Amino acid sequence: MVTSQLPDVGPDAPLYWQEACRHLMKRDRVMKKLIPQHAGASLQSRGDAFVTLARSIVGQQISVKAAQSVWDRFEKLPRKMTPAYVLKLKVDDMRAAGLSARKVEYLVDLALHFANDQVHVDKWAEMDDEAIIAELVAIRGIGRWTAEMFLIFHLMRPNVLPLDDIGLQNGISRAYFSGEPVSRSEIREVAASWAPYCSVATWYIWRSLDPLPVSY
Predict the structure, then answer these.
(1) d(Cα 149, Cα 198) in Å, to the nearest integer?
(2) I need a surface site. Which of 42, 97, 128, 155 has the fewest CB within 10 A?
(3) Domain boundaries, position 118
(4) In 3D, which of 43, 204, 49, 45 has the Cα closest to residue 142?
(5) CATH number of 17's domain
(6) Cα distances (angstroms) measured from residue 162 to each of 22, 30, 183, 187
(7) Do 131 and 68 sit in the same domain of this protein?
(8) What is the rounded radius of gyration, in angstroms, for the C-alpha atoms of the chain?
(9) What is the model's pLDDT at position 10?
(10) Rounded to an integer, what distance in angstroms lies between the CA atom of residue 174 and that of residue 202?
């Protein structure tokens, strides 16, 4: 019985996590081996929506270490990390914290979208994934990949398949195609048996490359 091999999950795991593991181990030979290797760990949400998206903008195209350093300096500028306080900041102060001119523009646009209710945070629970992605990519500096990471890590949506994610591509290449490069259609073929828990399978594919859980 596959159920006897189900890993323990932490108390902060999404409610669907155990059922997702059961489904994936039953349907997918790679998941059957991979999931038990990471008992006690699961996806976890962090921060509020605005802070999560601001961090993702700050971290674009720089190393994790550099991103944390810039974020630590930027975080000290506003009295509180909210859209209203970010909009009061001086551009020179934001640049001095290590932000590029473009990232300053992106953070201001993000703050404006939240301050002007151009994103419907209170309605996201009832909105489908694509509708939320459409709202988020309208913000400067946020592309589809960032929006998908937000769906997975902040909203904990169970069935997101980030086709453009390098880690997912590399992990599927190694686990299913003996290291050969994979196409988007091949990723979709593999993921057909994962639905409706593509986010969970993706999280375990990431673990196959790096045992330390990632968060955005």
Answers:
(1) 13
(2) 128
(3) 49-153
(4) 49
(5) 1.10.1670.40
(6) 22, 19, 13, 10
(7) yes
(8) 19
(9) 66
(10) 13
**What token pair was written down for 58?**
């700050």
* Contact criterion met (CB below 8 Å) for 77 and 85: no
Tokens read off for 173: 């290449």
Residue 22's Cβ-count burial label (10 Å; 0-12, 13-18, 19+) is middle
CA distance 55 to 85: 16
Q: What is the pLDDT of residues 63-94, one digit of tens each?
A: 878 999 999 999 999 999 999 999 999 999 99
- The three-point CA angle 119-120-126 to 5° equals 140
Q: Has residue 3 got a pLDDT over 50?
A: no
Tokens representing residue 117 in the block = 């209710």
User: Is the pLDDT confidence value at 193 over 60?
Assistant: yes
Asked if residue 129 lies in contact with residue 160, where contact means CB atoms within 8 angstroms, the answer is yes
The tally of domains found in the chain comes to: 2
* pLDDT tens profile 112-169: 999 999 999 999 999 999 999 999 999 999 999 999 999 998 999 999 999 999 999 9
Overall size of the chain counted in residues = 216
Mark whether 78 and 9 lie in a shared domain. no
- Grade residue 208 by pLDDT with cuts at 50, 70 and 90: very high
CA 128, chain centre distance (Å): 16
**Residues in CB range of 145: below 8 A, 6 or more apart:** 162, 164, 165
